[in-house]
Write a sequence for this structure.
């Protein structure tokens, strides 16, 4: 399989496992670790973890919100300038998580290059 697909799947699986035990920043640990061990090239270093975690957080927030008919999501969307739209809140949540994961992925790639140059 392609390294991009392997990194994508590994990021989602590890994020799913770690999110059960750790706070929200576990997605950054996941993206860092997968980018450290599964080397990607060019823009894929940012965008593969970005898309993986954005998709994960959007689906996860949908699953959590659908259990109570999105009552809490609608209230939070009113507090933010989202006009009470729960779906827009889920999208923004995915984007924020994706950016955090993408930056952590770039950091993981830079650390892997640093460790490779040391040897």
């Amino acid at each position: 399989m392609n390294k991009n697909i392997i990194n994508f799947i590994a990021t989602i699986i590890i994020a799913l496992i770690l999110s059960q035990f750790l706070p929200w920043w576990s997605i950054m640990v996941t993206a860092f670790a997968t980018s450290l061990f599964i080397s990607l090239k060019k823009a894929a270093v940012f965008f593969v973890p970005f898309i993986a975690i954005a998709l994960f957080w959007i689906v996860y927030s949908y699953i959590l919100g659908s259990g109570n008919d999105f009552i809490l999501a609608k209230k939070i969307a009113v507090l933010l300038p989202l006009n009470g739209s729960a779906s827009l809140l889920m999208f923004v949540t995915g984007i924020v998580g994706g950016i955090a994961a993408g930056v952590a992925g770039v950091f993981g790639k830079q650390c892997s290059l640093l460790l490779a140059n040391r040897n």
Observations:
- The helical segments are 3-18, 26-37, 44-66, 71-79, 86-118.
- The chain has five helices and no strands.
- The chain has one domain: 3-118.
- The radius of gyration is 16 Å.
